[in-house]
């Protein structure tokens, strides 16, 4: 499945890297950029905007996914390719699985990111811990109504499954 | 660290569960709700809005985090507690680590969510695979300029580290 890139892929990746530089120069956020392409056409671009927008979820990939979905008027990135200047963090990787593009290209690695202070590896490690053992404590509350929304969803006849 | 909940916590969780039901009834998205509290006061509420907004990242937790950060004018949820009607998916868990609330309470489990068709477990498994082995292929492109944005960031004197 993991075929090599071609010259088109390299061109789109160069744009993702350029966006990362634009973002740093604009004080928008960290040094990350992303481009989403469908049928050879760019449908969304983004750089990290965490600082500019006070939004910790405004990573380049999440922002590009949101924009591409607005362009397509769909919550799924069917047949799309995501180019990101750096290997996605767990949040962005999760977003990628929910959006379901067909392929992802990345340039820098998680280790490269950690070297300039973006320690995604820490989050990857936390994900593998039991909830109560994580550095942010995560506590289960028993509530007898907790399953009611799930039952409502399960029995809903006009729901759009995603 | 994982102390038990008190009556206040139960009240906020009941609201998160109520939001989940409101969201299903409004056809906004899946059966999930979240509340963020600071110093005993609700500063943000959300239910899942994936379908309503065509945004695959608009899970209850991500949406509540974004709103709370707008309220606080900060990309960090210092001293905040997040109440979510269901154990967070990898995307939301990543968002939680970037936003850094002090604690998270959840009601339903990942298994409960999987039983009604929201298979976060699949994503958790994919995260542990090597990039090339994932169901969405993730391919490394070597680009000689890839490290330039990181260098720019690293050498930037007026940067705000986050």
Q: Number of DSSP helices of chain A?
A: 7
The helicity of chain A comes to 40-55%
Q: Output the structural class of chain A.
A: alpha+beta
Tertiary shape of chain A: globular
End-to-end span of chain A in angstroms? 24 Å
Task: Tell me what you see in this structure.
The structure is a homodimer of 162-residue chains. The first copy, chain A, is an alpha+beta fold. The first copy, chain A, is 42% helix and 18% strand. Chain A has seven helices and five strands, in the order αββααβαβααβα. Chain A has helices at 7-25, 50-53, 60-72, 90-99, 110-115, 120-127, 148-155, and strands at 33-38, 41-47, 80-86, 103-108, 138-140. A four-stranded mixed sheet of chain A has the order 2-1-3-4. In chain A, strand 3, helix 4 (90-99) and strand 4 (103-108) form a beta-alpha-beta unit. In chain A, helix 3 (60-72) packs parallel to helix 4 (90-99). The longest helix of chain A has 19 residues, at 7-25. The two termini of chain A are 24 Å apart. The model of chain A has no long low-confidence stretch (mean pLDDT 94). At the A-B interface, helix 1, helix 3, helix 4, strand 4 and helix 5 of A face helix 1, helix 3, helix 4, strand 4 and helix 5 of B. Strand 5 of chain A pairs parallel with strand 4 of chain B, so a sheet runs across the interface.
